[in-house]
Fold this protein.
Amino acid sequence: MLLVKYFGLVIEESNYTEPRSSFLSDGLFRFTQPKFLNDKMSEAKLFPYFNEFSPADLDWAKERFQKDGGDINDSLDLALLKKFYLERPLDDRYGDAFPHLVESQFGYSSMKEFDKEQVNKKVQEINNQIIEKISAACGVFSLCKSVTSTHMWNHYASEGQGVALIFDETHEFFMRNIVKDVTYEISKRASVTYYRGSWRINGMPVKDWNSINKPEHLNDLMYKLLFSKSPDWEQEEESRIVCSLVDCDEAKGKFFEFYDSSVDKLLKYHECYLKKIPFSAFNTLVLGYGIAPEHKKSIIDRIKANTELAHLKLKSAEYDIFGELELIDIEY
């Protein structure tokens, strides 16, 4: 599996715009907290289900069914499973029993309309808390499994004016810092379910927080939060490393604070965390098809100046006559 990191143009301290390449000198890479990643809609967020059940809810119901002596097979009636393990009686709430009072007292045309507005507010609140808590603890190093992705060159390497670094996936660094694929299946995302007055997080009833906090449940929730995204991002073929911010080598940028009421603690974190990856883990640097000649020279000079990069291969990404990207060796 290829491990590729794309870099676009940046404005350096001298006010000069060039491809990001400081890692060729210092080996530092940003491990970005979820709060600052570019996917603002699905990154580290619970996917909501309103008056319907998530795949995680059904899995929870199946587990309970098995504990009660039931047999999970192809003939299992999901409607009955939902009825006995997930659904609440239709008349167990004040607003359901007296729907006319919902409009007269609260101004909503139905209990469903009232519920939906409350759910919108609550889910936003929950997701904001999750983003803040994870961003105060974890950083993400995003990688791509392709070095010839037109989408990635366009969006992350300034339309081919930048570079891409291919890592050696067999290097010890990637044995210690495990790379995992991102899934884009909605059914595999962490979920929050609201159904007629009851809440579930990733299948677990919210009233059962003690069970949710057990390692086997919490680990699954965190994995789904950090390694799943919306199908809209599937073309990026992402894999990633997630590490604790305390394991990073440098912290810089703006300082953030967030009060976590669940533990009565003020969480503090920086805007940017950098972690060093050994130069020996670098395999090939690929120059984009639109890179400026002066930028190419500057990058080659930087490589030559670092004796620890004597092994680094250099290639250029170029379009062939069929419009396909191919890699061309560069001697330097």
